[in-house]
Amino acid sequence: MFPTESPPKRKALAYAIPVLVILAPALGGSTALWAKAIMAIATGLLFILLPPERTLRPLHIIALVILALALTAFLPANWFGYPPWRTDLAKLGAQLPWTISSQPWLTFESICLLAIGLGWAYYLVVADWDSDLREAAVATFCIGILVLAASMSIAFALQKRVPFWPVVGGFGFFQNRNETGNVFALGGIMIYAVGMQRWQEGRRNWWIWLISVCLVFWALIINSSRAGIVLFFAGTLAWHLWWLSTSKKKRLPALLLIALVLLGGVLAWNGSAVLGRFTRETADFFSLSRNGRLAIYRDSFEFLKQSPGLGIGLGNFRSLFSSQRHFFISTTESIHPESDWFWVTIEMGLPVLLLLLAGVVIWLRGCLPFRAGTHRRIRVAAMICGLLFVFHGFLDVPGHRLGALWPALFLCSIGISPQLKFDQSRTIQFLFRVVGAVFIVFGLWWIASVFDLKTPPTTSTEDRLLEELELANNTGNYERAVRLADSGLAIAPLNWPFYYQRGLASAALYHPRPEAERDFAIARYLLPIWPDLALKEGLIWLNVGEEDLAFSVWEESIRRWPANAAELYDQIFGAVRGNVELRDRWRQLGHIDVQCLLILLRHSQHLEFELELERLFSKDPNLGSLSAAELTTLFETWFDQGDQLALAETLMRHPEWQKLAWQQLANALANYGDYHPAYDTAHQFVQRPRLPEINSDDSTEVLIQRSRASGNIDNDGIAVVVSEMKLEDFDSALSNLKNFATNAKVPASVYFLESEVWARKGEWQKAWAAMVKYQNAIHK
Predict the structure, then answer these.
(1) Which of 130, 282, 540, 696 stands 20 to 30 A from 48 (CA)?
(2) Beta partners for 55?
(3) What is the CATH number of the domain that holds 484?
């Protein structure tokens, strides 16, 4: 790859490549458009200054075909039939372009980024890494990882954010801590392999590399990413097992296990937050009911079936996926499908998935064999890193982030065997110089867009228009808001905020009602499961005097998404509570869903509560439609808002409900002076304290002496009272309990035993009062 006639430049670029690799995560993960522009320009300059001299025909073909398939997003959509989502939007009145991609400008930007990624991957694969260059490049990369880890550790210690890095709890360079963990895990594996190789070679500085792994590991702890911890340990263990299987001397691999155990000890000692995430969240990960990721995968698969051949076009997933979710029900917007492979397939189609997998297979075969004298220890570690990156792509999206992809591709190139045969080509030099110039143009275009110069639109243009649009609506400049929304929708016709903001401005300007209705309907289609969107639309209609339309929107949202019905219904009450007429309509809205009915009961006045409760029992006498949690809420509300005597009578007739509402039953009975049944109810269901066991040989006198000697109320003092109660010496027991109650810290069991003593004496009011003290004590 590097011209033999200029060794100094060749050596310099052996360091320049890993520096560029480290720059990608250092620029905040290169997720912002300005950072992508810098990476595009830097990559383009590298291609121009030092183009490759070798080619690998299979990868050459794969890269070109993938790029060609990405460009099919600009073909006419009617050639392939319309997917259901496109038909739905057309019926609602959305004006979409004629291409497969509904947002061609955003797709074009994504294709440019794809081209840069494919070019960088190909450039690294055909790199001519001889032994010296490979070692220098890997060492430079590892030093860069250590600089990132040190920067993050210092930022954490000072509680200061590194410039260009997002504001996240783990102080990482990505918003998503798993992507930060991915970079550190792969870098840590390489540092570990370098240190162990130098140990085997007998170099003096081997221990510096090995100790420096602790810095990377500390960064993983700060980042608190389970994925990063798993990838690091899986990679180092895999490398260790390979070393164990190929090493003639088994003592060194055994010593390595000690180092791994020490690192695990660091995690256990300092990584309590990480361990907490493992214990709390790992069980949820394997639960079909609690793991939202599995529901997202299921929704993604169903979405893929709508356009399996050519996909929906790059850059369109986030805009459409929320409208296609049926299994992952959440008020949050899904920006990606939690998988690189799902994301690529949905946007580009199944053929691209197969081509990428073929590329992985070709790369993997190119790493073999691992013969002695080919830096095989480093190459094996690099290959393991590449495989871990591919695997992580099934569970997250590091492959869609330049800051994670650039390091992974670099390590993949390091793993390739020097014995792999390449074709020499001078044409490839010219092509890469042209490609490099094109990449620089891309970067300059993006930078110009960031600075709001007159350029073709980008995601930066889209974001800026949306900010200006929201400002125009907030300041009452509705005419300008409509114009800005039109400009935004010309770039991103699937961006729901543009529709919502235009609908708001149209309603405020009293434009024909169908215009605002159309925009609001499209916005609700694109983001249907966000209660706040439906709430705000309804409030807009109320403000312009369209009460029927407001309640129609709210009713539709409650019926369509019952999982969010209670939240929306509760929010509506806050908006209409001061208007008698609107409040009456709100009450009628609460009959749609039983969850809404519970909120209705909670906010009802006494007479309203009785009417709604009677209506509920007339429809469902046994309340079979309510879950245990809903029944609990109903009885709590009934006790606070309704007739407590009627509640007590109802619960007495339904013993099966008393386990859920025994506190309300007991309190209601006590409020009406029925202390005996109130005490019996509480005594039956309340959590009882652990009382000390008394040996048959221990007399009361012995227990009293022991208690005086120890001064321990929790055990010895309570044991005296228990003994006195067995002997039915209730007066002595009460005397001791009263003495115990004067202490600064009174055990809850004191009040429980006091209630039992009063109950045995038939003093039910006092027994109930002591029981109330006990309940308050255990709930502190």
Answers:
(1) 130
(2) 423
(3) 1.25.40.10
